[in-house]
Amino acid sequence: MHRPEFVTSEDITRWSEIIDKDSNIPQFVRESAIMREMMYAGLWMGEELLKLKCNPVLIGRIQFTTGSLCFGKPDPWEVHQEVLQAYQNNELEFEMDYSEDDSAESQLN
Fold first, then answer.
1. Do the Cβ atoms of 19 and 36 come closer than 8 Å?
2. Where are the domains positioned within the chain?
3. How confident is the model at residue 109 (pLDDT cuts 50, 70, 90)?
4. DSSP per-residue string spanning 5-32
5. How far apart are CA 21 and CA 10, in angstroms?
6. What percent helix, strand, coil does the chain show, rounded to 5?
7. Between 99 and 10, whose confidence is greater?
8. Of 11, 36, 80, 88, which residue is least crowded by CB atoms under 10 Å?
9. pLDDT for residue 103
């Protein structure tokens, strides 16, 4: 797996701190190199989506789905970049979750 050149050592340090401080992430997941790389890619994508003013609820849904799409794939960075590109091109389709607030719904329309 090849980490993209735009990822800096400062990014990895920042994301590692986020992962290491998150008590919701099981220790065995934090210790897995491939899972950690997938989380780095997800955190990068989340930051990029925030820059695009994507709704935080929607960001979480996109990150979760993209993480799921990574399983069985050799390069999580490639998957995350493809999903971000699809978001930028308005090619993603979302199912409505009617339990969410109206701000998430307005982001989908």
1. yes
2. 9-108
3. very low
4. TT--HHHHHHHHHHHHH-TTS-HHHHT-
5. 17
6. 65, 0, 35
7. 10
8. 88
9. 52
